[in-house]
UniProtKB/TrEMBL annotation:
Coiled-coil blocks: none
Protein name in UniProt: NAD(P)H-binding protein
Organism whose genome encodes this protein: Streptomyces cavourensis
InterPro entries found in the cross-reference section: Ergot_Alk_Oxidoreductase, NAD(P)-bd_dom, NAD(P)-bd_dom_sf
Domain NAD(P)-binding: 6-178
Name of a matching Pfam family: NAD_binding_10
Length: 286
């Protein structure tokens, strides 16, 4: 039995779907009504990481855990790892980020994830870290601008990133959860090619069948937009990350997806074609 957390997100939801197609899976969800993976072998437990009683209930009889955390303040990785060790869990697979292994990355989010990884290492639970590059699905944040005036607005339109399809990240995580010999390993996960925001805009234009224009944001405007959505340390971390991408730090391609799944990583164009309806929904105001 495998426990999946983060199942209402892009990666956790796909992990749960893939596992449910093969056998029993349990999902821990703070809001169970938002879980979209269902079936006779899918069990959903209501609870959150700060609730040790709910954690113990979710971990009872569990062999492996897929862990997704995102709080900038709460020690959720430590909470889950401590409870997992007490429950006798044999393997914890954590969704982390590729920047943690890059010495030049020292923003707030990267430091936080480094600390989370260390907490899991020290817990004594056998671990695997899945460290993806930027998700292709982040471009869904452009949907409203595309719908309103056919414009994609982003920082540094010519800086490349080997962004990755969340479905491929999930496939790597499932391989680690269900295979053998992955304990103590950290897997960097990228897409098959570096691509710029201008190039992504061109692909979206072709997929959606409408002209799109790229407009580069000035840093101050980007900071203003980020501060409207995130706490300052998180917003500043995104800006620092963008500067690293501008310097070429995110362009490297790694073969992990093919090595662990036996197939190539999906291209951005494939991801865009598969999610065209999400951009169309924005056009309709959905």
């Amino acid at each position: 039995m495998i426990l999946v957390t983060g199942a209402t997100g892009a990666v956790g939801g796909e992990v749960a779907r893939l596992l449910a197609a093969e056998g029993p899976v349990r999902i821990l969800a703070r809001r169970p009504e938002r879980v979209t993976v269902h079936g006779p072998d899918v069990e959903v437990v209501a609870g959150e990481y700060a609730d040790r009683e709910a954690l113990d209930r979710a971990l009872r009889g569990i062999d492996a855990v897929f862990l997704v955390t995102n709080s900038p303040k709460e020690p959720d990785d430590l909470r889950v790892a401590t409870a997992a060790r007490a429950a006798g869990v044999r393997h914890l697979v954590k969704l982390s980020m590729m920047a943690v292994e890059e010495p030049g990355a020292d923003d707030f989010i990267t430091r936080l994830q480094r600390g989370n990884e260390e907490a899991i290492r020290e817990s004594g639970v056998p671990w695997t870290f899945v460290r993806p590059r930027t998700f292709m699905s982040n471009t869904l944040s452009w949907a409203k601008g595309i719908a309103s005036d056919g414009v994609v607005r982003a920082l540094y339109g010519d800086s490349p990133v080997a962004c990755v399809d969340p479905r491929d990240v999930a496939a790597v995580a499932v391989a680690a959860l269900t295979g053998t010999g992955h304990e103590g390993r950290a897997y960097a996960v990228s897409g098959p090619e570096p691509i710029t925001a201008r190039e992504q805009t061109a692909h979206l234009s072709e997929v959606l069948g409408r002209p799109l224009r790229f407009e580069q944001l000035l840093p101050d405007r980007a900071r203003e937009a980020l501060l409207a959505k995130y706490p300052r340390p998180v917003a500043e971390a995104f800006l620092e990350s963008a500067e690293r991408q501008r310097a070429g730090a995110k362009a490297a391609v790694v073969p992990t997806v093919e090595e662990l799944t036996g197939r190539p990583a999906r291209t951005f164009r494939t991801w865009a074609a598969d999610h065209a309806e999400s951009f169309a929904a924005a056009d309709l105001g959905v």
